Each structure stands twice: as C-alpha cells, then as structure tokens.
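Hi V.,

Quick status before I head out on leave. The structure for the redesign project is tokenized and pasted below; the design run finished overnight.
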C-alpha cells in the first residue's frame, strides 16, 4: 500500500477503507510515513471530511496506537466525563463527588492545562500534599474504596493522536470535526471507562463558537463512542461567560467546595447535577434522569457529596484543613478591583478575554514549560443580566503585582454594558444521545 494513493483517494472525496486508515495510523506512529504526507492527508480530510464509519476506525486506530488502561479490576460500571474546555470550568470537582456519593465509580485520567488556566490536575495541586502520580494498583484501590480518583495520564496513551495534533496545530487543520472528535475520543477509549458523558461547550469562551458547530462535534463524538462499544451522550452547555464567579486554580477549588457545601451558584450547581444525573443513569444506578437528578440534589443538599469530596482529597494526600477552612488555600499578594466606567446592565462577558487576563496573571500556561501560579486568578462580581453602576467593582484581580495593567484592560474589554437588561442565557442547549 502506498501513502500517496491514500492521499489522492481522500483528496478526490472517496471513502477510505478500514485497512487504509489503519495503515496510515500505524505507519505514521512508527515514523515510516513522513510529516509532509501526513499533513497532506490531514488537509484532504479537512476539505473532504470523513464518514461516521471512517471517523470511528480512525479513532479506534489512534486509541490502539499505544497503551490502553485496563480498569477491569474496578468494581461496577465505570463512567467518565470529558469537557471540551472553557473558562472557570471546575465542574469535575462537583460531578465527581456527586457521582461517587451514590456508589458509582469515577476513574478519571486528566491532563494539565495549556491555555487560560491550569487543567484539572493543576487545580487539585492547589491543595497542599495532593498527589496525582500513583501506581495503577493504588489508583484502582482508591476507586474501589472511595468511588473516585483522579490521576495524571500515565503510559503512552494514544501516541498517534499526540503526533497528529502537533502536526495539525502547525498546518491549519485543527478545526476539522472528524479530526477533533477522533482526537478527543481516542484518549477516552484508551482510558478504559465503560460509559462517557461529554460536556460540549458552545459560545465565546469555547473551542466551538456557534451552536451549530457544537452540535456537529457532539453528534460525531457520540456516534464514535456508541459505534465502538461505549455508551456515550453529550450535553451541549453555554460558555458565553465564565462558569461560576471564579477563574484560576485555588479559587476554582474554593468555589467548587462552596457549591458542595450548599452555596447556590446557579450555573455550577445546575450543570453539575445535569452531568452527574446522566453519568449515573448510564452506569445503571437509576432508571431515569429525573430520579437520578432528585437523589443527587439530596446528596448535594445533605452534605454527602461534600463528604465524598473530602474523602477523595484525603485519599490522595491532600491537606483537609484547606478544604475545611478555604481561607488556607493559596492567596495572591494583591487584590486589584476593576471599576466600571459605565452604568446599565451587563449584556456580554467575553469568556475568552477573561481567560486570557487570568493567563496574564500567571493562572495558565502560554507554553507547556510555563509554571502555574495557583494563587492568582479573577473573581467576577457581575455576570450577564446584572445591574451595574458607574464606579462599581465588576471584578477583582488576584495578582502578585500591584498593577496588572494588561489583565485590567483585558477584563474591562470583556464586559459589554447596555441600557436594557438582556435575556437570560440558556445553560443547557441540548442533550445528544
């Protein structure tokens, strides 16, 4: 088989065979197909697309290109959640304990963030002593004992995806629905969960800016998961403003803990319950979404979900005094107010600009070698629909510098104020099964 024939076939809009797709993935991973030919195929796919069957085979081949995690020693039906990313997205710290509180195992492999703020692991490391490196045996033992564990990705998961993503990033072929879906789902398949709930973001702070694009990506990933033997659903949720009021690392842990203790942060509470309900239904813990939601709401309100969070933190070496007294979490030296120079109602908050402002403070990484500062971040005082007066504080920057001018101007730019009160944003747009 010649790679040039595979490229020409896709260039001409023809469907690739299973063997042609597997040949490409295996040989490119092994280094026998050069980058320029792989880039040519990526561009052909970008323009000509792939069928649902082609995308599923590509995903399966990428998942099989390296290690796969065997979680068969975990008791029960393992369910995982994946978010396509956003600003202030600390939902894992709410859904994980919620799902664990009803006895459903959550075995989560997570990565570090590259962008606005740290990833799940970076945020957890805001808690002194918390460790994400552990043996497979310890990871499985934690899930069996406590129903929840979060670890760093170990081994060589989906190396074909790593190579292809790096290539797509520099050849203008990142935003292709089949290639994005294959990239995400190959890692989920290799991570070993039985069922997957996808939180697909849409809006200004999301990878997919329009609802139409988000639906297309969600449907593609659901099709892949179901074709490859994983019960998969996708929830399309809003990212036209940050989730909750906190953006950063330690301050996102703080807000998630507060929600688990009963604080009514509406979007975090509602999205956390929504995703957890779908996760527990897929795991067979409840016969219906309505029953799952009702029981999980009780677990949130009676403190059992918070206790599951404490148990999870303690089992991985975290200092519980920081959870029981949230003021002990890392804090920045300066707290700089962002003052509104307009009066009216908050009409828009560009979530991406808020994320970039947080990265300027040190909450995220511009390159993979950058160091995260767990203490810095942004607290939003005003969200879309809130009334605002001239001279009022719209946000607070938690900074190591007394005058973080770049972040100040970025946050001011992010807020759009209008005379009329805008309609409330929808949080959940659609559930795709």
């Amino acid at each position: 088989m010649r790679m040039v024939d595979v490229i020409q076939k896709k260039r001409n809009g023809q469907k690739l065979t299973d063997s042609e797709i597997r040949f490409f993935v295996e040989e490119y991973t092994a280094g026998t197909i050069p980058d320029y030919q792989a880039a040519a195929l990526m561009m052909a796919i970008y323009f000509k697309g792939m069928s649902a069957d082609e995308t599923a085979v590509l995903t399966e081949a990428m998942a099989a290109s390296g290690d796969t995690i065997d979680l068969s020693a975990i008791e029960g039906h393992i369910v995982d959640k994946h978010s396509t990313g956003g600003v202030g997205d600390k939902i894992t710290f709410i859904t994980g304990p919620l799902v664990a509180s009803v006895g459903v195992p959550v075995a989560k492999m997570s990565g570090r963030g590259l962008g606005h703020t740290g990833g799940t692991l970076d945020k957890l490391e805001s808690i002194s002593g918390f460790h994400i490196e552990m043996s497979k045996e310890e990871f499985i033992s934690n899930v069996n004992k406590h129903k929840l564990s979060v670890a760093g990705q170990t081994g060589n998961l989906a190396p074909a995806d790593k190579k292809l993503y790096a290539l797509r990033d520099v050849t203008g072929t990142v935003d292709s629905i089949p290639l994005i879906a294959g990239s995400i789902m190959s890692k989920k398949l290799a991570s070993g969960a039985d069922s997957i709930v996808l939180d697909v973001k849409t809006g200004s702070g999301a990878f997919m800016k329009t609802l139409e694009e988000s639906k297309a990506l969600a449907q593609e990933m659901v099709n892949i998961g179901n074709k490859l033997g994983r019960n998969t659903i996708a929830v399309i949720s809003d990212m036209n403003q940050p989730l909750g009021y906190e953006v950063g690392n330690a301050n996102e842990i703080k807000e998630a803990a507060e929600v688990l203790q009963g604080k009514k942060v509406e979007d975090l509470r509602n999205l956390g319950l929504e995703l957890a309900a779908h996760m527990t239904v897929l795991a067979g813990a409840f016969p219906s979404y309505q029953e799952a939601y009702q029981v999980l709401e009780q677990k949130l309100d009676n403190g059992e979900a918070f206790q599951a969070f404490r148990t999870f933190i303690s089992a991985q070496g975290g200092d519980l005094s920081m959870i029981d007294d949230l003021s002990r979490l890392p804090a920045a030296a300066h707290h700089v107010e962002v003052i509104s120079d307009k009066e009216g109602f908050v009409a828009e908050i560009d979530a991406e600009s808020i994320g970039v402002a947080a990265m300027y403070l040190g909450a995220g990484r511009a390159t993979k070698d950058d160091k995260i500062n767990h203490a810095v971040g942004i607290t939003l005082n005003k969200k879309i629909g809130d009334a605002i007066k001239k001279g009022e504080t719209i946000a607070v920057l938690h900074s190591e510098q007394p005058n973080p001018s770049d972040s100040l101007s970025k946050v001011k730019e992010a807020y759009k104020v209008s005379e009329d009160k805008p309609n409330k944003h929808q949080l959940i747009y659609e559930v795709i099964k």
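Above is the designed sequence. The CA atoms of residues 304 and 319 lie 19 Å apart.

G. will cover questions while I'm gone.

Best,
W.
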